Amino acid sequence: METPWRSRRGIAPLREREKRDTKSKPQVETMSPAIALAFLPLVVTLLVRYRHYFRLLVRTVLLRSLRDCLSGLRIEERAFSYVLTHALPGDPSHILTTLDHWSSHCEHLSHMGPVKGQILMRLVEEKAPACVLELGTYCGYSTLLIARALPPGGRLLTVERDPRTAAVAEKIIRLAGFDEHMVELIVGSSEEVIPHLRTQHQLSRADLVLLAHRPRCYLRDLQLLEAHALLPAGATVLADHVLFPGAPRFLQYTKSCGRYRCRVHHTGLPDFPAIKDGIAQLTYAGPG
Q: Where in this protein does the record put region Disordered (predicted)?
């Protein structure tokens, strides 16, 4: 049976349109298996070289987020529950050891750890500061280290911006046996607290300062301490995590402004010693 003339006339334009549509559609190209295999050695090399960073990422981000969702508690709150059932009240040393054990065997706590802790305690004992200012209380680990090493009559002011984290730190500090007269916990951002330390917390000078909050805030807060004349000549400023994740602008300022003598104590991250980090030790020469 012959196709009607009108139908035959419509077939040719339809085929032409199909050809044009086919040409206008973007061609989806797939990577050939050979090219994918060529990148495999590079991927394996990166995984091997940076395996410690991948482990850190998994433990501090992926697993932590999952446990937060499942338990409804933050890692600091879970750590405090562990301390409450395993540590001896009134014994700061045992509480610190318990936190180290929790971080190594349960969940990475992102705390200072025993290696850096020994450096901190040694410097506090050497300097014997009458008053210490800590920015970044976190779970209270470094707070206990400082309080243990303070000379008789020494005073520690510690600042934590997050109220929920500060509540945990307060419990740990009091569990260790330090009262409000020796260790005062201030809740608020360092940027807002520093200008009012003299008037609201009777801090006229800080003989030793520990920066342990956010490395990107170190330079700003150091300059605030200078501007409000809270650093006497000879004061010691310690800054954690200056190599990882790093505080390059802070280090550049302290080395180039001419008002500080600077050295870095090289260490590794707690539970990840292959990841290099360090504590900067600054000695303030005065406004100059």
A: 1-27
